[in-house]
Amino acid sequence: MKPIQPQRYVCYRAENPPKIDGRLDDKVWKSAPSTVEFADIEGPDHPRPRFRTTAKMMWDADYFYIAVQMEEPHVWGTLIKHDSVIFHDNDFEVFIDPNGDNHQYYEFELNALNTGWDLFLPRPYSDGGGADDGWEIPGLKTAVHIDGTLNDPSDIDKGWSVEIAIPWRALQQHAHRPAPPRNGDQWRVNFSRVEWEHKIEAGKYQKVKGKREDNWVWSPQGIINMHRPERWGYVQFSESKGDKRDKNEFKVDPTEPGREALMEIYHKQKSFKTKNKRWASSLDELQLPATLFAGFPIPPQFESTASGYQVSLDIPLGDNRKHQWRVRQDSRLWAVGRWEKHMDRIEATLKRQAAAWNKGDIDAFMQDYWKSEQLTFSSGGKTTRGWKATKERYHLRYPTKEKMGQLTFSKLEVSVLEETSAMVLGRWHLKRADDELEGNFSLVFRQIDGRWVIVHDHSSLEKNEEEG
Ligand SMILES: [Ca+2]
Ligand SMILES: [Ca+2]
Ligand SMILES: [Ca+2]
Question: I want to staple 383 with a disulfide (CB 3.0 to 4.6 A). Which of 87, 174, 333, 378 is the partner?
């Protein structure tokens, strides 16, 4: 694949939500920047699309808003069943990979009849992924406006426009990072427009048999395949208000060149495997020039694993820090050891909890549990559900400061699984006037609204001999 610089876009916060009616005359759209004109999926040296397409994006606390304007002299559509293969009609498509790891991403397609297809991809098709059509976007709002007539070949249309509002709640599920995003967060996004050649037969639009569709996209992929998320554009979410926008607000992620170099290895590995029936174990074998890694402190490290390989690269961040990134045979791309700050915050949470406990303050102790009916607390073969019930259980079992005693945590093992979830193993020890209790615990933490909270607690009590 020929490397193409992915498109970049700053998505501003909407002061008022647009009316989702397919018409882009809302004040909020007037203030949003337009993307570049869509280009051929393979890149700028391929024929320019026959019809013009541009998109806009906005966001607020509830939705990610997308608007697209498509020039089209013949607006037609046939599919009316939800989750049909919508690109068999002319369509508009949205692709979103919130954390940019090339896995666990979303796709949504819409035709001129406002029929939608929402699907979830655990990984790209060419990495052994299969689409999950069963994935739905509850609360999704879409609308199409046709500037002309639908399915009427007797006249020439101007085009169609689409408005989409995707609830963050739906995108949260596999985001592995906050959704809605924080100011400055960047997500990988691309848009595609599928356009078929047609003929008119008996007063109806018909696709020309044997002709391949055109794919016109916001950020060219360099290959006729949308399912290479590493090629998608970058959308940076911004809290900036209309009058305070900075033209240079988009910040290129300093890990971008390193991540691209790792993906270059991934693609070379794929062709090497096809040819040699095994994975390469060095840059030399892949015939990749050392200059590709000139800007990095040490060359990429190749390792073979049970399922294939992984290649690690230290990527400088420009401030004496570096992140180690890894790619493996199924194109998953991720940062290793970037979780230190989260580990510190989780340990601070446990320290704060022990301090509250030792002051005899169960209410303060409970502040670091998820205030939700979905909180679960398991102990002694029983599971308590909900924040209130868990709090009551503590009050019941530890009615006085004397009963609460002095709590210490030890042997903590904090594992941050993803940017918004972590597991903690450890020991607890309770010293009271006339006895001591202790046991193991495992906690599941989630980062919710910017705070790490315990969403599940499993604590066991080791019975001592006197109790036996
Ligand atoms: Ca509108
Ligand atoms: Ca992902
Ligand atoms: Ca679906």
Answer: 378
